[in-house]
């Protein structure tokens, strides 16, 4: 079987400090061959890079997460930019975007930070990994000027409606990131995906968050992406092997790397 690609995992965070190497070993045993690691903010870069330097199948990204946008956002964004300008190799700009679920205090600043990082992605021909929670109207507002550009990437943790999916897919260089939410009993995502070609999705875990059934409520890890692949295979009436191959090819297009 083609190896599974976890296009969004935070294995460098403190939740894995006690057993990180075992988690990576379980991922390999489960057939996960590529682990893409979006950054969170200026405080998480060194831990992420330390892990990726030890394991060649880990691919780091760089970005400032919207929930880290605060009163000190200018200096935090500049710190991230210094990393981007450094000799370190990054494979995408992420995790970036908008999150108005927890707090709207810095909503305006989030828009500015997101737009700046979109421009980084375009300037450097790098994919963009986009987080959006309770902010689709604002997201579309920021993205509209870039509709006809070469911008590409992943709309991470997609859980929207068929209408949301249709609007997002107007950005032809983007994939929808599908994770453990698709396995949840009350999720409408399986029905929504019937309107999305399998050629427009990638698989992810968002570990340590959003563990799929039967692990829901526990710490997520990359090995659990198998359960996501199984559910996606069921939705599209495909084999798990076909889902692994297609979604891996989709990820390779986004990140522009060799298999």
From TrEMBL:
One of its GO terms (molecular function) is hydrolase activity, acting on ester bonds. This is TatD family hydrolase. Gene3D superfamilies: Metal-dependent hydrolases (3.20.20.140). The keyword Hydrolase applies. Keywords: Hydrolase, Metal-binding. It comes from Candidatus Phocaeicola excrementipullorum. A divalent metal cation 1 binds at residues 8, 10, 95, 206. GO terms for cellular component: cytosol. The keyword Metal-binding applies. Belongs to the metallo-dependent hydrolases superfamily. TatD-type hydrolase family. A divalent metal cation 2 binds at residues 131, 156. It holds the Pfam family TatD_DNase.
